[in-house]
Design a protein that fits this description.
heterodimer, A: Rossmann fold, six-stranded mixed sheet, globular, B: mainly alpha, 0% strand
C-alpha cells in the first residue's frame, strides 16, 4: 500500500499447527493476515479455541510459523492468567522486567514506583499478590508488561477471568492508561464489546483453524461510552459476522 | 497462656496419658525393669545420669545438625543438576534411589578407613540416609512452576539462569523445606545408625552408642537416652516450621499453619 503509514506489525498468510503427541498435528491457524500501525490497538476476536493465544505466541516469537511470514518488533506477552510471582510484592513484580534487564533492585523499584501512582495503585506497592483482588492483580500484571519497554504489547484475554463489573472498570482503566502511555497493542478477546470499546480495528477470526473472516475499523471518538448508539451498532455488526461464521 | 502453648496442649495431654497408661501397665503386668522400665524409672535414670547423657547428647546433636546441613546442600545441588539437565536426571536419579538401599555397616568400615574415628564419617552416613527426600521434593518443586511462566519470562527476555533464579528457585523453596522436614525426622535415627556403625575415639561416643551399650543391663538409661533423642527430633521439626514461616511466608499464608 503506497503512501500508507508504516506497519509496525504485519502477518502474511500465516499458518501454524501444534505438533500432536499422537496422530495428526492440530491446525491452529491458517492463512492469517493482519497488520497494525505504530500506536494502534488491534483487537482479535473469535470463538474459544480458534487459535487466538497461539497467534500472540507467534507474534512474540515463541513459535515459528509453518507457513507465511511475520514481521514484528520485540513483543511482550501478558498471559491470560496474571502469573505474578507469589513471593514478590506488587512493586517487585512490576519491577521484574527491569531486574531481568540487569538493573539493581533499588533502581528497578524506583522506576516501578513512578508508575504506581499514575494508574491508581498507590498504597499497594508492598501488597503480595495473594492479598490483591483479581482486578488489582491484572493491573499489576499490565504494569509489568508496560515496564518491559517493548514497542508491542500482546494482551491475551486480560480481563477474561474477572466478574462483569470489575471487567468494565478494567476496560476503562486500560483505555485511560493507554491514552497516557501510547503503545502498539494486540488485544485478544472473546468479548466483542471489549474489542470495540478499546480497539482501532477489530479482526474477526473463524473457529479452528482460525483465519481472519472480517476486519472492522472502529472510528469512534475516545473516550468511548459502551452505551453509545454507534458503538452498539458496530457491536451488533461484529457479532453478526461471528455468528455467520459459526454456522458456516 | 500463649497461643503456641495452647496449640501444643493436645499433644502434651496425649503424651501424659500414654505415660500414665505405660506406668499402670508395668505395675499391673509385673514386667521386669530389664524388659520395660516404667516411666518413673526412666525419669530416675535421666536424673541420675544427667551429666553422662547430656555430654553424649551434645555429640549426637552436633552430628545430626551438621549431617543434615551436608544432606541439604548435597540434596539441593543434586536436585538442581537433575532439574537443569535431562542427561544428569537419567544418570543420577536411579543411583540416588539405589543409594537408599545401601546397608550402612557395609560402607561403615570403608568410611572409617578413609576418614578415621572423628565426626566426618558419621556426617557422611547421616547425609547418605537423609539427602534423598530433599532431592525428590526439590526436583518436584522445581518442575511445578506454572507451564505458562516460562513463556512470559521468555518474552521478558529472561535468560535460562534468570528464569531459574526469579521463578523456579523461589517456587521450589516450600517443597525443598518439606523435603528437609522429612530429612530432619530421619536424621536422628540416621545419627544412631552412624554412631553404631562407625567407631569413635572421643571421650563421649554419642547417645546412639550409649543407648546401644545400655540396652541390656541399664535399660532405664537406654530409655532415658531415647527420650532425649525423641524430644530433640520434635524440637528440630518445629524449629524448621518456624524457619519456613520466615523463609517462605507466602506459602504458609496460602496453606495455613503447619502441623
Amino acid at each position: 500500500m503506497p503512501g500508507a503509514p508504516e506497519q509496525l506489525l504485519s502477518l502474511q498468510s500465516v499458518g501454524f499447527a501444534h505438533p500432536a503427541r499422537r496422530g495428526a498435528p492440530v491446525q491452529a491457524l491458517s492463512e492469517v493476515s493482519l497488520h497494525a500501525r505504530t500506536g494502534e490497538l488491534l483487537a482479535v476476536v473469535g470463538p474459544s479455541g480458534c487459535g487466538k493465544s497461539t497467534l500472540l505466541e507467534l507474534i512474540c516469537a515463541l513459535h515459528t510459523p509453518d507457513q507465511g511470514t511475520i514481521t514484528a518488533p520485540p513483543a511482550v506477552l501478558m498471559p491470560q492468567r496474571d502469573l505474578l510471582l507469589a513471593w514478590l510484592s506488587a512493586l517487585d513484580n512490576v519491577a521484574l522486567p527491569l531486574r531481568i534487564a540487569g538493573l539493581g533492585r533499588a533502581q528497578a523499584r524506583a522506576r516501578a514506583r513512578e508508575l504506581f501512582g499514575e494508574v491508581g495503585l498507590d498504597g499497594f506497592q508492598q501488597a503480595h499478590p495473594a492479598e490483591l483482588s483479581g482486578g488489582m492483580r491484572q493491573r499489576v500484571a499490565f504494569l509489568r508488561t508496560l515496564l518491559c519497554g517493548k514497542p508491542l504489547l500482546c494482551l491475551d484475554e486480560p480481563f477474561g477471568a474477572l466478574d462483569a463489573i470489575t471487567r468494565a472498570e478494567m476496560q476503562e482503566w486500560l483505555a485511560a492508561t493507554l491514552a497516557r502511555e501510547r503503545r502498539t497493542v494486540v488485544l485478544v478477546t472473546h468479548d466483542v464489546e471489549e474489542a470495540i470499546l478499546l480497539a482501532d480495528r477489530v479482526a474477526v477470526l473463524s473457529p479452528r483453524p482460525g483465519r481472519v473472516v472480517a476486519s472492522v475499523e472502529v472510528e469512534l471518538e475516545r473516550p468511548r461510552n459502551r452505551t453509545d448508539a454507534a458503538l452498539s451498532a458496530l457491536r451488533e455488526h461484529a457479532l453478526g459476522l461471528l455468528a455467520s461464521e459459526g454456522q458456516a | 497462656m500463649s497461643a503456641r502453648l495452647r496449640a501444643g496442649l493436645p499433644a502434651i495431654a496425649l503424651a501424659l496419658g500414654l505415660l500414665a497408661a505405660w506406668e499402670l501397665y508395668v505395675d499391673l503386668a509385673g514386667i521386669g525393669e530389664q524388659l520395660l522400665p516404667a516411666p518413673h524409672a526412666v525419669a530416675q535414670a535421666l536424673w541420675d545420669s544427667a551429666g553422662l547423657l547430656w555430654h553424649n547428647f551434645t555429640v549426637t546433636a552436633g552430628e545430626v545438625l551438621l549431617g543434615l546441613a551436608l544432606a541439604l546442600s548435597a540434596g539441593l545441588a543434586l536436585a538442581v543438576a537433575i532439574h537443569l539437565s535431562p542427561l544428569l536426571r537419567r544418570a543420577l536419579y536411579p543411583l540416588a534411589v539405589g543409594s537408599q538401599a545401601v546397608p550402612i555397616p557395609v560402607v561403615g568400615v570403608l568410611l572409617v578407613f578413609w576418614w578415621g574415628f572423628g565426626i566426618f564419617p558419621k556426617l557422611v552416613v547421616i547425609a547418605l540416609i537423609c539427602f534423598f527426600p530433599v532431592v525428590v521434593a526439590t526436583v518436584d518443586g522445581l518442575a511445578a512452576v506454572d507451564p505458562e511462566q516460562p513463556k512470559l519470562l521468555r518474552t521478558l527476555d529472561a535468560s535460562r539462569w534468570q528464569a531459574f533464579r526469579f521463578a523456579e528457585l523461589p517456587a521450589a523453596l516450600p517443597a525443598a523445606i518439606s523435603g528437609a522436614r522429612i530429612a530432619l525426622t530421619i536424621g536422628v535415627i540416621g545419627a544412631f545408625i552412624a554412631e553404631t556403625t562407625t567407631p569413635t575415639s572421643g571421650p563421649y561416643p554419642g547417645l546412639g552408642r550409649e543407648i546401644l551399650s545400655d540396652v541390656n543391663f541399664q535399660t532405664a538409661r537406654a530409655y532415658a537416652g531415647s527420650a532425649i533423642l525423641i524430644v530433640f527430633a520434635i524440637a528440630c521439626f518445629y524449629a524448621l516450621s518456624g524457619a519456613e514461616r520466615k523463609l517462605a511466608p507466602w506459602h504458609t499464608r496460602a496453606r495455613g499453619e503447619t502441623p
